[in-house]
Structures are given as C-alpha cells and as structure tokens.
Amino acid sequence: MQILDTLKNIFLTPRDTTFEGLSEEEILQINIKVVVIEFAENVENSSGEVLAALLHTQKNLNVSYFNEPFNKTFLNLEGRTFFDFIDKGQAILDNTKADVLIWGQRENDKIRLNFQTPMQYEKNNRSFLSLLDSLYLPAYLFSGEGSFPVSILNLIIGTIISSLNTPDKPSEIRQKYLLKKIILKLSSDNSAKNMGLEYMPYIMNFLALIYLSYCRHFDNEKEFKIVNNLLENAIKHQDLIKKPVHLGCIYNHFGQLHDTAIKVLTKNPAKHFKGAISNYQRAQKYLGKYVYPYDYGIISYKLSSLLYNYWRQKEDLQALRDSVFNLREAEKIFTYNLFPEFWADIEGELGQRLNILSTITNNNAIAELAIAAYKNRQKIITEKRDPFDWAGTQENIGNIYFRLGRDNDDKELLEESLECFHDALYIFENMELQDNAKRLTVSIAKTSDLLA
User: Fold this and answer.
1) What is d(CA 301, CA 181) in angstroms, rounded to the nearest whole number?
2) Cα gap 153→159, rounded to integer Å
3) How far is CA 375 from the centre of its chain?
4) CA pair distance 218, 397, nearest whole angstrom
5) Packing angle of the helix pair 150-162, 169-186 (nearest 10 deg)
6) pTM listed for this prediction
C-alpha cells in the first residue's frame, strides 16, 4: 500500500497560503519541544530511542528521550487506568516543559503511538487531537535496521505540529506554515508502499487530523470534502479496527469537521449542524463517560454549544433541554477541584441556559437552579480577582430575582434583586463603565418602583 494511494496528489495538495503579518524569519523561529517516552515493550528493543533519534534530525523540533523507569501498564487504554495515563503524562509535561509527549507501546508485531499535550483537555485547546488517537505502525520499522519510511516520519512530524494549541494568530500562522511543508511532502511520497492494509484506518485518521489542522478556516466546500474523504477512507476499513475506542476517535473527528464547517461555510448550515451533533453523539457511544471521561466530557461541552445554537435558529425547546443536559454531563467531569477555570465557564453557561429555559417554561425551580449555577461561577470568578465578570454575573442573578419577584409579587426576592444590582453598579461605576452603570441604574429604578 502506498501511504496515500489514490489520495496522492488529489486530496493532499495544499492551497496557496499567504502568511500576512509575519516575516519568514519570524515564521521560522519555531522550536517545538518534544519528549519521547521510553516505549513499553516486552522485547529487548529501544523503539522509542530510535524514534527520538529520527526526530532529532528535523528542523524546528527540540527532541529529548525520557527513559526514567516507571510502570507503564496504563498504556493499555483501559478505563480503570486511564486517569493514571493522563496524570503521569501531565507530571512529565510539567517537569520537562515539553509541548508534546510521544508514548509508545508494543502490541504483538505493532507499535502504537499516542500524543499528549498540556492543554489537551482544557476548554480553550484548539487542537483536534485526543490522547486516545492512536497511530499503529509495524514494529519492524523501529528495529534500527534499514531505513525508516520518510512518509511515516513526516506523518509523525505532522501530528506533532497538529497537536499544538494555537491560542493566537502568530502561533496559528506558524503552525500552518509548517503543516503546508509537511502536506507537500506527504502528497509526493510513496515510501511506505509495503505497509499492510491493516494500518490504513489509522493512517487516514491522522492524515485527516493534519489536513483539518491546516485548513481549519475552510475557503470552500472542496477543503471540507478533502478531510471528509480521508475520514471516510478510515471508517471504510473499520473491520480492521480491533478496539472500539479507535472508532470513537474517528467519529469524533467527523464531528469536529462538521463543527468547524458551521463556523466558516455559509452553504447548508443545517447539514453541518446535524452532522456535528450526530457524529459527536456516535463518538460518545464508543468513548463512554465511565471509561474515557475527559473525551466524553469535551464532546458533551461541544454538543451543548451546538444544541444551544440549534435552538436559537429553530426554537426547538428539546434542543435547549439537551444543551443543558450536556452541560450537566460536562460539569460532572470537569470539576471545581480539577478544572476550576473550565468549571466556572460551565457554571456561567448553565446559569444562562437554565435562565432561558425557566423563562420559556415559566418554571421557578429551574430559575433557582440558574441562580445556583451563577453563584457557583462566582466561587472562581471573584469580586477581587475579576471584578468586571463578577459584576456581570451579579447583574444576571439580580435579573432572575427581579423576574421571580415581579411575577410572584415577592418583596423578598425583589430586595435580593436590588442588592445584586447595587453590587454590580458599584463595580461598574468604579471602573467608569458608563453604559453598564446606566443600565444598572434603570434596573434599580424599576425594582424600587415595585417595592414602593
């Protein structure tokens, strides 16, 4: 099999890209710190060291080999040990300040590679790669005898680049520049022509990840089809996939593809909404919350946003209820103790959506839940730490108390409302935010009139 086979020069030819705002010198100032962990192998071999040496020769990569002994039984990807996998990797990332960890485990005559990054399970991570995404390769490639296929090495390098979080425009431009070079190499190389068909779904999945990372801002429907074709080629060979978790990863990427298309393609948005929702839900059947909770939770969070936006377009009340349900699922996983910032964002969104749901259904109990969620957010977003956001949340709480007090002729609730409005007004006036202060002044006057 050629690594790209019929896809070569058809699906992986990158578009012409300009890199406005950054000079070539600035673009080339890229130094990705990669740590290859000693592979888990039951043979006298050093596959990890072989890979580290190969990567060490590549520009823009600062590669080191981590061979401190520790128990690697958690690499089996089973649910009962998956937290150990994440935690050990995070500890190594913290100690080495690495951008990417590469894990390897031998499974009979194959080596399975997984990639871990510091932001992998954070809300603002922009990479499409999961720790569960697994690249299977023949073990003999790592024997050190003969040449390692250039196309496979480029596939691994492309994955490293794709795994990076790109929080700002300069980092996104640098990533795109490197990915373009890798894609051009992959589209013109057939050095892996002797690899067996059983590796096809994994290679296609990673090619899709690389191309999706490169063209995350689709210019046209053709680029969507490129990634879709790669993923379809992966799923077409699902009979070769032995573990359900790997199917879940592919369906997750189908969901990410449609999710991305919603934001950038104006043609047929309903199709992409449905495609994102259905594929994310299908992925969750393979990535269950009791086995792979972080992946399940991230998908739940994304589903919540999709369903909320779908409700805004279609006014489908069930979509709004499902949005709240998925936020609740994410809330159980990204907890106050482990993910305080993410949890605070979830609580803020829960407050907003529960408030809307309570207004539509005229349900006071749901309104109380909205208030509780907003107050939870204020455990992290405090008045001292972030006065503006705290005041905005306080105003939201005041608005709910005002509505409940007005509709139920409850003076106690109106007084609670008034107190919240005064708290928020104090912050806005001190920050000299005139529009916000004016809005609160009106709210205070309306509440005072009802109390008079």
Assistant:
1) 33
2) 10
3) 26
4) 39
5) 160
6) 0.92
Crossing angle for the helix pair 293-314 and 340-361, to the nearest 10 degrees: 30
Rg value, the chain, Cα: 25
pLDDT above 60: residue 194: yes
Q: What is the dihedral of CA 314, 320, 321, 323, to 10 degrees?
A: 120
HSE toward the beta carbon, residue 117, CA cutoff 13 A: 24
Burial of 303 (0-12, 13-18, 19+ CB in 10 A): buried
In the block, tokens 């790997």 appear at: 246
- pLDDT higher than 80, residue 18: no
Instruction: Say how far residue 43 (Cα) sits from the centre of its chain.
Output: 35
DSSP codes joined into one string, 303-357: HHHHHHHHHHHH--HHHHHHHHHHHHHHHHHS-TTT-HHHHHHHHHHHHHHHHHH
For the residues 185-197, what does the mean pLDDT come to?
Answer: 75
CA 191 to chain centre: 32
What percent of the chain is modeled with pLDDT above 70? 92
What percent of the chain clears pLDDT 90, i.e. is strictly above it? 76
d(CA 226, CA 212): 9
Determine phi and psi for 280, rounding to 5 degrees. -60, -45
C-alpha–C-alpha distance, residues 288 and 292, integer Å: 6
**Those residues with Cβ within 8 angstroms of residue 311's Cβ, 6 or more apart along the chain or in another chain:** 317, 319, 320, 323
